[in-house]
Amino acid sequence: MLQYSRILRLKEEGFSLRSIASSTGNSRQKVTEVIERAERKGLKEPLDEDVTDKWLEEFLFPEKSLKASGRQPIDFDHIHKELAKPNVTLSLLHHEYETECRVNKKIPYSYRSFVRHYSSYANKHKATLRIRRKPGEVMEVDWAGSTAFIIDRDTGEKAKAYIFVATLPCSQLSYAEASLSMNLSAWITAHNHAYSYFGGSTQIVIPDNLKAGVTKHTLRELVLNPTYREMADHYGTVVMPARVGAPKDKPSVEGSVGVISTWIIAALRNTHCFSIEELNREVRGKLEEFNHRSFTRKQGCRFSAFEEEEKFALSPLPEIPYKMSEWRTAKVRPDYHVSVESMFYSVPYEYINRQVEVRLSENLVEIYFNHMRIASHKRLYGKFGQLATTHDHMPDNHKLYVDQTPENAKEWAGSIGGNTLKVIHYLLDSSQTEKLALQSIFSLKKTERRYSKYEIERACKMIISMTARPTVKGIQTLLANNKKSDAELELKRKAESTNNHYGFMRGAAYYGGADTNE
């Protein structure tokens, strides 16, 4: 057997490859291979006393123990990397291995031996075993059964604090956070913080069937809370609650809850915190200790296992964390507004008396009908009864009324003509109040439905020539009289045109007939 420990020790002491090869009686190529494998697997001097050359050989060259059997060696590094990919299983990899053996005319290992050898390799040389859980696939979440507490500074009373736990089953890395309640807001906030702590999201989230996240879960139907479903969509993950009464569907978090109850909650039993922020600082410190504690049966810790074996497989987080939102239902009022927390938000008037869904976030109110957004408004805060009305949501007659301002009136008059603008200026300047003037102008604007701009401008020109105090009533009278006069003139013109349409006509004698006048 090669003197692996001596080769590594001489390399650490600075001897050249030629000197090491001469001293150990091996070729420089073999010495180089041993040193490169040791560096690749992070093995450095000084080694522990119980590390023998046999152990080093199994660690650096695991395939050697398989070659003696005369079977096709297994590339364990390749197997371990492939198992990290979606939908790749040991069964598929064993089938590919068998195919390769047939091509090379080698004897393959049976599936049972294949799995046993991989398990032995992964348990000895890798931080994770990928047979049951793939990296980045699942995050299990739950509330711990035990509670912590904070102390009220004024009364000295203890208030319960609930501990949220999230675990990645592959690496067993966990996240914990204290909250004063277990409501939907605390549940969503804890998920946001867990994703931030892990630095990515998983393909699946497995929660318990708590009411904050799951509305209904039966064999035939699964109904998630809309906010929880929306949060999952934001992070590109799927929520698959554990079956009712089946804790084995999320065994990792169940186990972590028990361990965290000991190493965090019980460890803080004598620590007095006076705010939830202070408690969470203590929880975070204990959590770091927990994640960096060494495994008892294999090398590394939860954090190192995550960094080496799982972090790469997490999906990247969105640029903006999910913002908490709440869904409600409302009925559109006759004034085409919906009432939300005593504030009123408009929707298109066509939806009057319809049932709509309202999504409330911190700064935005969105209104949906049949899963289609029909309106959005900035959320109102402060005094009750405030209105958020969009101009395009109004019926046409309401738009005309709302648009009545002196500036809009002058702009409209300018589009008609100079005489109309003079009338508008007079009405605004001579009226007792601006409101009365705008009402008169509104009546004049409505005449545009029946009369052309030319007719309105002509009537305004006529009334200015007739009086220094024009009125809307006088203009309306002139419009009606002019319309009547124009109609009479048009009839007279048509009659005259008909009478003047004659020519030279020959008598009956011209055609050889009798003249009746003789």
Provide the fold topology.
Layout: H1 4-12, H2 17-24, H3 28-40, H4 53-60, H5 64-67, H6 76-82, H7 90-104, H8 111-125, E1 138-151, E2 158-167, E3 174-179, H9 184-198, E4 204-206, E5 214-217, E6 222-224, H10 226-234, E7 238-239, H11 251-265, H12 276-291, H13 302-309, E8 325-331, E9 337-340, E10 343-346, E11 355-361, E12 364-369, E13 372-378, E14 387-388, H14 396-402, H15 406-416, H16 418-430, H17 434-446, H18 453-466, H19 472-499
Parallel strand pairs: 1-4, 4-7, 10-14
Antiparallel strand pairs: 1-2, 2-3, 5-6, 8-11, 9-10, 11-12, 12-13
Helix pairs in contact: 1-2, 1-3, 2-3, 11-12, 15-16, 16-17, 16-18, 18-19
What do these coordinates show?
This protein has 518 residues and is α+β, with helices and mostly antiparallel strands. The protein folds into 4 domains: 122 residues, no CATH class; 176 residues, 2-Layer Sandwich (Nucleotidyltransferase, domain 5); 73 residues, no CATH class; 97 residues, no CATH class. 44% of the residues lie in helices and 15% in strands. The strands form 4 sheets. A 5-stranded mixed sheet has the order 3-2-1-4-7, sandwiched between helices. It has a 4-stranded antiparallel sheet with strand order 8-11-12-13, with no helix packed on it. Helix 1 packs across helix 3 and helix 15 packs antiparallel against helix 16. The chain is elongated. The relative contact order is 0.05. The model has no long low-confidence stretch (mean pLDDT 82).
